[in-house]
Amino acid sequence: MEDTRTLKLVVVSAGLGVPSSTRLLADRITESVRRELAEDGREVDVRVVELRDLAVAVANNFVTGFPAPALEEALEAVTGADGLVAVTPVFAASYSGLFKSFFDLVEPDALTGMPVLAAATGGTARHSLVLEHALRPLFAHLRALVVPTAVFAASEDWGGTGDALTDTLPDRIVRAGRELAALMGTTTRRLPSEPSPADLFA
C-alpha cells in the first residue's frame, strides 16, 4: 500500500544569535528537502526547534530530571519525526554545548532508524571536520541513519564559488536535501517500543 501521509520534518537549530548563520543554513536546507519531497508528490509538515529558546529548560532538566512542557514537546517532536535536520555552530572545534545537551536528553533508542541530515556553521573551513569527528559519530551512537552528504558553511561559503572537490554551498545543500528526502520517502522507522527481529528470537 502506498504511503500518502504527510511526512514530519523537524529542524533543530542551535544558533545563539538573532539572526544567526546557523538558522539561515537550517532554513535553506529545509527548503531544499521540502522542494525535493514536493517534486515526488509528498507533503511535509515542518517544525523548527530553536534551542536558544530552550537553553534554561535544558539546564533545569539536568538538575531536576524533569523537562518543562516546551522542552518535552520539542523532544517529542524530534523523536516522532520522519526526518531530522540538525544544525549547530562550531565552538572549540566541536558542536555547541547546548546542541549536545539537548541530544543528551533524547532517549537512547528514540532515534533508531531516523534519517538525519547533519550540518554546521563556523568562521573558517578548517572547522568542517566537525561533521565527521563529532556530528556523525553522535548520531551513529543514537542509531540514526545519517545521510552521506553533511553540510558545513564557513563565512566565505555564503556567496562563494566553492572548489572542484566541495562544490558551492547551494550545490551541497541541494545534494544533501535530495538524500534526506529520499530516505524520508522510503524508510519505515521501528519505534523503540516495537520489537526488532533480533528481539523476537532472543
Write out key terms for the chains shown.
Rossmann fold; FMN_Rdtase-like_dom; Flavoprotein-like_sf; FMN; single chain; globular; alpha/beta; 7 helices; seven-stranded mixed beta sheet; FMN reductase
Structure overview:
α1 packs across α6. Strands 1, 2, 3, 4, 5, 6 and 7 form a 7-stranded mixed β-sheet that branches. This protein is of the alpha/beta class. It is 41% helix and 19% strand. It has a single domain, classed as Rossmann fold (3-Layer(aba) Sandwich). The C terminus is likely disordered. It is globular, with a radius of gyration of 17 Å. The chain has 7 helices and 7 strands; from the N terminus they run βαβααββαβαββαα.
Query: What kind of oligomer do you see?
Result: single chain
CATH class: Alpha Beta
**How many H/I helices?**
7
Using DSSP, what is the number of strands?
Answer: 7
CATH topology: Rossmann fold
Q: What proportion of the residues is helical, as a percent range?
A: 40-55%
Beta content: 15-25%
Keywords: Flavoprotein, FMN, Oxidoreductase
GO molecular function, one term: oxidoreductase activity
InterPro entries: CE1759_FMN_reduct, Flavoprotein-like_sf, FMN_Rdtase-like_dom, NAD(P)H-dep_FMN_reductase
Organism: Streptomyces genisteinicus
